[in-house]
Amino acid sequence: MRTMLKTTAAVGAAILLGLGATSAHAADASQHAATPAPTKAQTTPVTVLNTQVHAWLRVHVRAEPNTSSEILSHVAPGYTYPAICWTYGETVTLEGYTNNKWVLIDRTWPKQNGYVTAIALSGDDTGGVSEKC
C-alpha cells in the first residue's frame, strides 16, 4: 500500500510538472532499486534459550508472581531449574533480603509454568535471568 501511494504521488507530481507518467514511474523505480530486500537472517524468528537458575532456598512455585496465588510446586536448595524470564510482582522478604522480582520457571510439559521469588535463586536480584517477561 505504501509503494502504491508513493507511485501515485510521483505520477501526480509528474503530471502537474508536465513530465508524463513514464518519467514518474522511472524515478519511483530508481528509489526502490536502492532499497535492499530483506535477507533471510533479517526475517528469521529468534529463539531465546532458557537461563538455568540455581535455588538456594526452598520456596513455592506459584501461578502468579505473589504469595497468595495457587501453589504449583516448589524449588529445592541445590537444584537447577530452567527459567524463562523475570517480572515484577509482590514484594517479599526472606532471609533478610527484600525484593519484588519474580522468575518464571519453565516446568516440564504438561505442567503449568510458575513463578518463584528471585530471592530464592543464586545470583543477582533477578536470579541471574536477564530476559524480562
Describe the structure.
This is SH3 domain-containing protein. Residues 1-26 form the signal peptide. Keywords: Signal. The chain has 133 residues and is an alpha+beta fold. The chain has 2 domains: 2-39, no CATH class; 51-120, Roll (SH3 type barrels). Helix content is 25%, strand content 31%. It has 3 helices and 6 strands. It has helices at residues 2-17, 21-33, 40-43; strands at 51-54, 59-62, 71-75, 80-94, 97-105, 114-117. The strands form 2 sheets. It has a 4-stranded antiparallel beta sheet, with no helix packed on it. α1 (2-17) packs across α2. It is globular, with a radius of gyration of 27 Å.
SSE diagram, text form:
Layout: H1 2-17, H2 21-33, H3 40-43, E1 51-54, E2 59-62, E3 71-75, E4 80-94, E5 97-105, E6 114-117
Antiparallel strand pairs: 1-4, 2-3, 4-5, 5-6
Helix pairs in contact: 1-2
Protein name: SH3 domain-containing protein
Organism: Streptomyces chumphonensis
Keywords: Signal
Characteristics of this structure?
disordered N terminus, SH3 type barrels, signal, two-stranded antiparallel ribbon, alpha+beta, 2 domains, 25% helix, globular, 133 residues, single chain, four-stranded antiparallel β-sheet
> Residue-averaged pLDDT, rounded?
77
> What does the largest sheet look like?
4 strands, antiparallel
Helix content: 10-25%
Count of runs of 4 or more consecutive helical residues: 3
Order of adjacent strands in the largest pleated sheet? 1-4-5-6
The number of E-state strands comes to 6
Distance between the termini: 34 Å
**Which band does the percent of strand residues land in?**
25-35%
Name of the level-1 CATH class of the largest domain: Mainly Beta
CATH topology of the largest domain: SH3 type barrels
Secondary-structure element sequence?
HHHEEEEEE
Low-confidence sequence ranges: 1-17, 19-33
Overall tally of structural domains: 2
Keywords: Signal
Protein name: SH3 domain-containing protein
